């Protein structure tokens, strides 16, 4: 089933319909998506990381979850399939897909599905309309980066138990650049755009074309990955890098996010969750850049094509008073695009 989830698009599969072993599974998915090829002309992929994604869903054995969700990022120009990160955008389609495929029964006019994200072990709860026992994708909720409107999918993440600051510090100096390394569902490195000689308001394509900037960002990413305990990240898609600039349209901050080489035309859900939580860290690089609301949990994260509203609240429950995310919630939308049979490119 092909669904748009948030500002991404992906192919959703039942786990039982794919090979169980990673190697043959990944080889099949490359053929299905049409990779490696910059146009992905011979497969389902849309020639961009945001449209070259896969969700694998199954009934969960975890008593705290209804379904398991494995996210796989399929390379566009390289024959790579990575499970090193979550995807909060495709997460918006997991609950509806689970009901569509009969993994979870619809429960009245609104159904909640508890989801275990296998990439990290984290949990999420997605609630969406199911009048008459069927998923209803129509509605009035609008999200930036997606034309029109659709039914709201409310996604809430339970309180985190791990450190919000993987390095143990609110600010680090990486390759001579001040950064805040944060993980609220997505390992992310926050950087003031001005510290890299850019405004943070440039078009994504212009930032991608800046080779000097790309080299600097790669240096920062490789070093920050080690500091965050991720090891050698040269061939992985995390951590993400988010450049911060003062808001331009009433939000808390303007962002330009690299995933990790291409510049996102909006921002991912989990990336936004990490940005929002990071902005609430005293002494972080967001100080003097962002305008964090004084009241309430909701924060508006601006991005190249609009904004994403996200709710975060921090607590200091860990030993030593280290911060954790107490609450994170976001409203997204999803839509079923196609349900049928895909014919992979021959092996």
From TrEMBL:
- InterPro entries according to UniProt: OMA_tautomer-like, PrpF-like
The EC number on file is: 5.3.2.8
Matching entries from Pfam families are given as: PrpF
Say if the entry is tagged with keyword Isomerase. Answer: yes
MF terms per GO, please? isomerase activity
Which superkingdom is the protein from?
Bacteria
Listed A to Z, the keywords are: Isomerase
Q: Which PANTHER family did the record assign?
A: ACONITATE ISOMERASE-RELATED, ISOMERASE YBHH-RELATED
Q: Which family does it belong to?
A: Belongs to the PrpF family.
Name of protein: 4-oxalomesaconate tautomerase
Organism, per UniProt? Streptomyces liliiviolaceus
């Amino acid at each position: 089933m092909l669904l748009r989830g948030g500002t991404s698009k992906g192919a959703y599969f039942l786990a039982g319909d794919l090979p169980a072993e990673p190697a043959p599974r990944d080889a099949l998915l490359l053929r299905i998506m049409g990779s490696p090829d910059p146009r992905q002309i011979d497969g389902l992929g849309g020639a961009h990381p945001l449209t070259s994604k896969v969700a694998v869903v199954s009934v969960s054995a975890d008593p705290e979850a209804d379904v398991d969700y494995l996210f796989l990022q399929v390379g566009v120009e390289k024959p790579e399939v990575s499970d090193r990160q979550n995807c909060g955008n495709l997460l918006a389609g997991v609950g509806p897909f689970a009901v569509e495929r009969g993994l979870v029964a619809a429960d009245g006019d609104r159904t909640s599905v508890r989801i275990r994200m296998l990439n990290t072990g984290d949990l999420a709860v997605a609630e969406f309309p199911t009048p008459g026992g069927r998923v209803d994708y129509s509605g009035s909720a609008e999200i930036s980066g997606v034309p029109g409107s659709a039914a709201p999918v409310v996604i809430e993440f339970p309180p985190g138990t791990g450190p919000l600051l993987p390095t143990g510090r609110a600010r680090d100096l990486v390759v001579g650049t001040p950064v805040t390394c944060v993980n609220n569902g997505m390992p992310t490195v926050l950087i003031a755009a001005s510290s890299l000689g850019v405004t943070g308001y440039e078009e994504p394509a212009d930032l991608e074309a800046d080779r000097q900037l790309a080299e600097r960002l790669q240096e920062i990413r490789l070093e920050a990955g080690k500091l965050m305990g991720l090891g050698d990240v040269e061939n992985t898609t995390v951590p993400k890098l988010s450049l911060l600039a003062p808001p331009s349209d009433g939000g808390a901050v303007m962002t330009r996010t690299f995933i990790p080489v291409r510049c996102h035309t909006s921002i991912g859900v989990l990336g936004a969750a990490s940005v929002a939580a990071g902005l609430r860290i005293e002494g972080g690089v967001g100080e003097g850049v962002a305008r964090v609301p004084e009241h309430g949990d909701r924060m508006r994260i601006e991005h190249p094509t609009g904004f994403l509203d996200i709710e975060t609240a921090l607590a200091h429950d860990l030993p030593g008073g280290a911060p954790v995310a107490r609450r994170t919630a976001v409203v997204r939308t999803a839509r079923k695009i196609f349900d049928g049979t895909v014919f992979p490119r021959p092996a």
